[in-house]
């Protein structure tokens, strides 16, 4: 519940407010991005922009890139387990996953249209879709101990684009 996806989501909202259509670029090539600490890898269109935040009790790293009118965001919040470990109790896991989704939706003025709990590499996860006046979103949240991972695709089509599906299917936890 302390997850700070709200701040990172606000950056996404600002980019959306500028208009993804203005960013259209057909020449972007997809490449595997591995975060500097080698915790995860994922296919992304081009080199992502990195945003970091350090606060008492947690550090977060967010990576954002775009392709045509689609935007892709992936990040991790690393909680100090001595301060906060949402995975310590089952009810903490459910609350954290729901709070992350709800905070994201609130930040981008979106309403959820579907969500599904699942396991991702053996860790509790939540897939969700939502929509706002600016874009449609698909997201994946994974809770691996005191680390919370989130990947989001923003797009303007009614259906999830093939590129967004490829983005999520390529996600791998290396050393969570």
What report would you give on this structure?
The protein has 176 residues and is of the alpha+beta class. 23% of the residues lie in helices and 44% in strands. The protein is built from three helices and ten strands, in the order αβββββαββββαβ. The chain has a seven-stranded antiparallel sheet with strand order 3-4-5-9-8-7-6, sandwiched between helices. The chain has a three-stranded antiparallel sheet with strand order 1-2-10. A hairpin with a 4-residue loop joins β7 and β8. About 5% of the residues have low confidence.
User: Gyration radius, to the nearest Å?
Assistant: 15 Å
Spatially, the strands of the biggest sheet line up as 3-4-5-9-8-7-6
Residue windows where pLDDT falls under 50 for at least 5 positions: 17-25
Average per-residue pLDDT, rounded, comes to 87
Global outline:
globular
Question: TL;DR of this structure?
Answer:
The chain is an alpha+beta fold and 176 residues long.
Brief descriptors of the model:
23% helix, 7-stranded antiparallel beta sheet, alpha+beta, 3-stranded antiparallel beta sheet, 176 residues, 3 helices
């Amino acid at each position: 519940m302390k997850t700070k996806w709200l701040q990172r989501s606000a950056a996404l909202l600002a980019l959306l407010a500028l208009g993804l259509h203005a960013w259209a670029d057909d020449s972007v090539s997809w490449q595997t991005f591995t975060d500097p600490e080698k915790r995860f890898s994922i296919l992304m269109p081009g080199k992502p922009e990195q945003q970091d935040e350090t606060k008492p009790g947690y550090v977060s790293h967010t990576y954002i890139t775009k392709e045509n009118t689609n935007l892709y965001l992936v990040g991790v919040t690393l909680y100090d387990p001595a301060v906060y470990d949402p995975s310590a109790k089952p009810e903490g896991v459910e609350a954290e996953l729901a709070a992350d989704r709800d905070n994201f939706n609130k930040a981008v003025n979106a309403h959820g249209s579907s969500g599904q709990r699942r396991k991702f590499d053996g860790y509790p996860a939540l897939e969700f879709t939502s929509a706002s006046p600016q874009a449609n979103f698909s997201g994946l949240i994974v809770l691996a101990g005191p680390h919370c991972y989130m990947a989001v695709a923003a797009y303007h089509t009614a259906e999830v684009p093939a590129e967004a599906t490829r983005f999520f299917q390529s996600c791998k936890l290396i050393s969570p």
